Amino acid sequence: METLDLTMKSIAKKPKNVRNWSSRATNGSVIGTGAFRLMDGSSVRTPGTGLWDVSGQNLENYGVPADVYIDNTPADFAAGRDAQLQKAVEVLQEELRKNPSKEIPDR
User: What is the pTM of this model?
Assistant: First the structure.
C-alpha cells in the first residue's frame, strides 16, 4: 500500500515545492486484482481495476521518479546511518538558506 500511496501522491497535481521524498522511483504497482478459486482448489488473480493520470497515462508499471535519488547502502545500514534522511535534511537546509522565512513563529 505504501508504494500505491507514493505513486498516487507523486502524480497528483501538487505545488512546485512538494517533493517525492521516496528517494527511489516508485515501482508502479497500482492495479487492483481479484482472486478466483478454481475447481482443483488453486486460485488465480486477475486485474480488476486500473489507474490513469489526467493525461491518460496508464500508471501500471510506470514508476514515478524521485526528485532526489539516494539509496541506503549496506555500509550505511551497518554504520547506523540513514543516507536518505541525511540528504533530505541537507536539501531542506539549502532551500531554507535560499528562501529564509520572512516571519518567526511564536514560541
Answer: 0.49
